[in-house]
Amino acid sequence: MPYKPTWKDRLEDAEPYIGPAIAGVVVLALVGWLGWHTFGPEKSTRSFTAPPKAEVDRLAAMRRVAGEAEVLEKTYRRALESGVSAETAAAMLDRAIEKQRELMRSEPAVSTEQAAKLARLEGARGSQRSRAALARSRELEKEALAAQQAGQGAEAREKMQEALRLQREANANATKDEVKDVARESRLAREVSGAEAEPLHAAVATALTLARSAIAQEKWEDAQNAYTEARKSQAELNQRFPATRHADVAALDKIDAELASLRAAGLAAAVTAREREGDAAAQAGRAQEAAASFAAAATLQREINTKFLKSRFASEPRADDLEVRRQTVLSSVLLGRAVGLDRELGDALRRRQNSAATEKLWAALKILEKVAAEYPRSRSFDPALQRKLAYLALRTGDLDTLQEQVFTRLGPLPGTTRLQMLKTEVPQELYTRVMNINPSRNAGRGLPVDSVSWLDTQEFCERLSWVLGRLVRLPSEVEFARAWSAGGAGAWSADNSGGRSRETGKSPATPAGYHDLAGNLTEWLQPPLQVGETAPVAGGSYLDPAAALKTLKVTVGEKSERARHIGFRIVIEPGVN
Questions:
Q1: Fewest CB atoms within 10 A around its CB: which of 58, 237, 258, 528?
Q2: Is the pLDDT of residue 229 over 70?
């Protein structure tokens, strides 16, 4: 029901007019009387000029508008206190504001008081609009949530968009900071963006499902078209709604990779086919044909890597592997020749035909140099063979001397017909020639090498095997026991050694012709199994009393141990190294 003022309200509203009206009448009467008596015809001959009519009208209009503005503001405030509807109060406030603006337009110079009054009225209207917009925004949000739960996505989006618009309007019109709700505006903006992004997200999911289905059916063109649609929707989603959970740069990269894979699928199949051809040719011994197939496969793979970098088929390691296989198959023929020369080299060394052995050595080294230069990535390249040949190349001038030093010290191992064992412990002179180093703490050319670990003895045996063309190793515990004889009379012990090792071959020999099996240095032996951290040592040393050397003593030492009382001797087999 529209607001109706009472008689009392009307009387109060008229009060501003009564006083000015009475005062105006009195003033006019006094002015008329004074003018008549002062300037009348009988008092003076001067004529009287009245104020301009326009000015009088303007002042009267200003007083009227001022009164109306005052009445409208009071009426609005009484209506607000009486609980009228927001629409009615807003209409009354709009009229008061318009009347106040009319008053200010009629004044030659706007007073501070009138400007403050207008600002107060407009602020009240802003707060009123803000509260109304906020209330409606909250109602629409609830309606949007209900529509969303009911599966009415389009309606839910529309209501949420309107709720956001009203919240922004409420924040814009609010005059007090506590009325503003920036957090809610941000939340609604995210929800609106998410809702608006949902159709695009659904389009991406649908397109991806179609693409995978097409791939399963090997319908490559359909799959490519579906992935293209998925990419278009995902790119739009990322651009328009970057702050939503559906925005996904990684998803776009995955789609690009799938598209690239589809385009590269034909090339990838060709790579696989050429690779299989190469494998078959290599197994059949057709090296050149195999190399050509691997090279073609590598070229196709590099094309994939260049043109379809994001494809699942792009692979630098695969291209590298194909090149390695090409080099391997080509180098295998040359390396086979080198291996054959190595066998011939070993045969010549075993027969002590060192000149022939040297010729084979240089020929094999030349092949290895060619392989290293032309096929550096070949898997057939044998570092062990290279190391062996490089070592022998440094020893070509010492082959005769080394062989002579070894063979003059050998004796048949008792109980066998094929094994020979060094009659003495390895002297420092021989060890130094083979290893280019002498670790002994008790130094002397004829003294047995000491302070060697079990690992050092293995390297010595390997190198000497290369020189002799025969397998060189440590004796086993059984073999050592066969050569050892009871008693140990005259062995270098704590009683006669002077507290140090003595020259090899100077102690009394056993019936089999071996020296220092008991005493002088304890000797490393070959364990039954190569694995493990320990190895046996046997024979006692110059640190043991003579009585202790009358029985064979075998203990265990750490393979990495180096002690001044531990040395070794070797066993040589007749077979090829």
A1: 528
A2: yes
Last residue of a domain, one of 110, 125, 155: 110
Task: Please check whether residues 443 and 564 belong to one and the same domain.
Answer: yes
Interval 344-359: pLDDT, tens: 999 999 999 999 999 9
CB 491 within 8 A of CB 522: no
Asked whether residue 349 falls in the same domain as residue 407, the answer is no
What phi and psi values does residue 233 have, to the nearest 5 degrees?
A: -70, -40
Rg of the chain over all Cα atoms, to the nearest angstrom: 56
Number of domains comprising the chain: 3
Antiparallel, parallel or unpaired: β 566-567 and 522-524: parallel
Q: What is the DSSP string of 27-62?
A: HHHHHHHHHHHHHSTTT-SPPP-PPPHHHHHHHHHH
Q: Could you tell me the two tokens for 342?
A: 């190595």
H or E stretch at 66: helix 53-81
Q: Do 439 and 567 meet the contact criterion of CB atoms below 8 Å apart? A: no
Q: Does one domain contain both 562 and 448?
A: yes
CA distances from 514 to 205, 476, 510, 566 (A): 87, 16, 5, 17
Q: Which helix (H) or strand (E) holds 327?
A: helix 316-350
Lowest pLDDT segment from 36-50, 69-83, 348-362, 370-384 = 36-50
Q: How far apart are CA 104 and CA 158, in angstroms?
A: 43
Query: Which residue, 76, 110, 144, sits at the end of a domain?
Result: 110
CA 180 – CA 189 distance, rounded (Å): 15
* Distance between CA atoms of residues 561 and 418, nearest Å: 32
CA distance 94 to 79: 14
- Expressed as residue numbers, the domain containing 349 is 334-394
Q: Is the pLDDT of residue 364 over 80?
A: yes
Residues 269-297 pLDDT 10s: 899 999 999 999 999 999 999 999 999 99
Q: What is the DSSP letter of 189?
A: H
Give the residues across from 572 on adjacent strands.
Answer: 420, 472
Same domain, yes or no, for 55 and 92? yes
Separation CA 192–CA 314 (nearest Å):
40
More confident residue, 182 or 109: 182
pLDDT above 80 for 490: yes
